[in-house]
From TrEMBL:
Oligomer status and interactors: Homodimer.
Gene: rbsK
Ranges where the Carbohydrate kinase PfkB domain occurs: 2-293
Protein name per Swiss-Prot or TrEMBL: Ribokinase
Active site, UniProt feature: 251 (proton acceptor)
InterPro entries named in the record: Carboh/pur_kinase_PfkB_CS, PfkB_dom, Ribo/fructo_kinase, Ribokinase, Ribokinase-like, Tagatose/fructose_Pkinase
Highest rank taxon of the organism: Bacteria
Activity modulation notes: Activated by a monovalent cation that binds near, but not in, the active site. The most likely occupant of the site in vivo is potassium. Ion binding induces a conformational change that may alter substrate affinity.
Source species: Salinibacillus kushneri
């Protein structure tokens, strides 16, 4: 079986600096890099690098960046057959600044991502038969996301909703999600709950359950996460690493989660595995190129003494 990802594909322009400039201020940065990115493409890459077949449904422009991004996905063994080449828009772009703490600010220009339409989804899903998990985010049009979730449910697929970015969230997506994985900002945007600790994370999870989503992972950044599954819950501690770049950590987490769920693991085991993969991502620069392979995950687990029963079986 495989994972299908519906989402954005971007070129990331990454500027590294010691401190962010204040409004109206000019400062000198340290370096600039150009990386493949986009939440959907990042998540599909994570699934592929962890050894799982994955279909990518998205859109790029008919330009050099579009060519580069498709080749990058293919190099990671992502199936790019369902990627649209837009005749109207240029490839999406993210302008990212990373400071010395590895935190980031991001300006996203959607470009071709806005040209992924319902008919593109229907055409792709009518050709996909062996996929058991759908992974979606909110960087493509809302109606496109909703239609992909509807068709996934019709096919009996398990739907993972990563409700990011907060600006793109639609509550209607909760009607079709089997699990939701918001961070603190997204939780506040959706529910008005300020997640600061385990108790407030549980409050949010219970509200999501009341809204029809009985499985959730409330991510609290450096403070770990709370995994909630139909009334049962578990707190997962963060994994300490030397942070270089936090861009794409949530995408690595989401891809690993979908991969583990497709392998048949319960929410708690899948979330523990995803936590390892997300932690490893922040040790490298680049939202997509920094995503670890399954061999790197295995090596990290051996170094940290993480046992197989703590994670999914491929570790």
């Amino acid at each position: 079986m495989s994972v299908t990802v519906v989402g954005s594909i971007n070129i990331d322009t990454v500027a590294v600096t010691d401190v962010y400039p204040e409004r109206g201020q000019t400062i000198f940065g340290k370096k600039i890099e150009y990386f493949p990115g986009g939440k959907g493409a990042n998540q599909a890459t994570a699934v592929a690098r962890l050894g799982k077949p994955v279909n990518m449904i998205g859109a790029v422009g008919q330009d050099l960046y579009g060519d580069k991004l498709i080749h990058s996905l293919q190099d990671s063994k992502v199936d790019t057959h369902f990627i649209k080449r837009s005749e109207t828009f240029a490839t999406g772009t993210a302008i990212i600044t990373i400071d010395q703490t590895a935190e980031n600010t991001m300006l996203v220009l959607k470009g071709a991502n806005d040209d992924l339409r319902i008919n593109d989804i229907e055409s792709a899903f009518n050709q996909i038969d062996a996929s058991d998990v759908l992974l979606v985010q909110m960087e493509v049009p809302q109606e496109t996301v909703i239609r992909s979730m509807e068709m996934a449910k019709e096919k009996g697929m398990y739907v993972v909703l990563d409700p990011a970015p907060a600006e793109g969230i639609t509550v209607k997506a909760l009607d079709y999600a089997d699990i939701i994985t918001p961070n603190q900002q997204e939780t506040y945007h959706m529910l008005g709950v300020d997640v600061t600790d385990i108790d407030s994370a549980l409050e949010a999870a219970e509200i999501f359950e009341g809204m029809g989503v009985s499985n959730s992972i409330i991510k609290m950044g450096a403070h770990g996460s709370v995994v909630y599954q139909k009334g049962n819950w578990e707190y997962i501690e963060p994994i300490s690493v030397k942070a270089v770049d936090s861009v794409g950590a949530g995408d690595a987490f989401a891809g690993a989660l979908a991969c583990a769920i497709s392998d048949g693991y319960d929410t708690f085991s899948a979330a523990r595995f995803a936590t390892v993969v997300g932690a490893l991502k922040v040790t490298k620069l680049g939202a997509q190129v920094g995503i670890p392979t399954i061999d790197e995950v295995n090596a990290f687990c051996r170094e940290r003494g993480l046992t197989k029963h703590q994670l999914k079986k491929t570790v």
